[in-house]
């Protein structure tokens, strides 16, 4: 049995679909189990079960871990992340979980200029100290996050950022989920650290060109300085300050440290990762 923490997230929900396709038993945890059952629909009639649990309540986790040997851990970033995930790891070890697959950050060094990356570094340290077999997945930017640009593209034919012309690694969350399923079902590939990207790097101006061609109208990328971007995210996108800081920090790092793709997805899955062109074609209607 595989327990899934983060089942409502983009990666976790895709992982549930993949495990259901494979016929692998999994238990998805949620503080609102009825809502999750509605979300997963017909998956709940397959090998996927839903259980009530709260990451901040160890006793509820102990109940949810009964009969399970593996844990997939993909919590949303938050200022409580270190506290919650290290507590989950301790509880999992006490409950007899043998293998944890954790979604982490590609910038994992303690000195990384990204605060959220430092949180993940602390959690990875806790995983190492737990003595449990663990697999760490370090994906770069999610293609799905580009869907957040749809509001201003639809209304103004523009999207904003602070990336300049810097090329960025993108990966489809479904590829991350497929990798997670692979390491959860193939123990020979467990116990490693995997950095995950798509097969190409691409800049925001290039994404604007791709969208222009797809939509048959000019789409512009407007670059902002980091302070203006942070202010816009807080005042107009209503982001909490820590999340706005995270967005501008990772964009600043992409400018400062050139990114390049890895072949990890292909090596693990035996196929090329999904392309950004394919992703944009699939979701083109959201930008119209």
Total of domains: 2
What is the average of the pLDDT values? Answer: 90
What structural class is derived from the secondary structure elements? alpha/beta
* Spatial sequence of strands, sheet with the most strands: 3-2-1-4-5-6-10
Number of H/I helices = 12
Write the H/E string, N to C.
EHEHEHEHEHEEHEEHEEHEHHHH
Kindly state the percentage of residues in helix.
Answer: 40-55%
CATH-level-2 architecture of the largest domain? 3-Layer(aba) Sandwich
Overall shape: it is globular
Q: Find the CATH topology of the largest domain.
A: Rossmann fold
Record field, number of beta strands: 12
Distance between the termini: 42 Å
SSE blueprint and pairings:
Elements: E1 2-5, H1 10-22, E2 26-30, H2 33-40, E3 48-52, H3 58-65, E4 70-73, H4 81-95, E5 99-103, H5 115-130, E6 133-139, E7 141-142, H6 150-156, E8 158-161, E9 168-171, H7 173-185, E10 193-196, E11 201-202, H8 204-215, E12 220-223, H9 226-235, H10 241-256, H11 264-269, H12 276-282
Helix pairs in contact: 1-7, 3-4, 4-5, 9-10
Question: TL;DR of this structure?
Answer:
The protein is of the alpha/beta class.
Q: How would you explain this protein's 3D organization?
A:
Helices cover 45% and strands 17% of the residues. The strands form three sheets. A seven-stranded parallel sheet has the order 3-2-1-4-5-6-10, with helices on both faces. The relative contact order is 0.13. It has 288 residues and is an alpha/beta fold. The termini are far apart. The chain folds into two domains: 2-138, NAD(P)-binding Rossmann-like Domain (Rossmann fold, 3-Layer(aba) Sandwich), CATH 3.40.50.720; 140-172 and 197-259 and 274-288, UDP-galactose 4-epimerase, domain 1. Strand 5, helix 5 and strand 6 form a beta-alpha-beta unit. InterPro entries: Ergot_Alk_Oxidoreductase (IPR051604), NAD(P)-bd_dom_sf (IPR036291), NmrA-like (IPR008030).
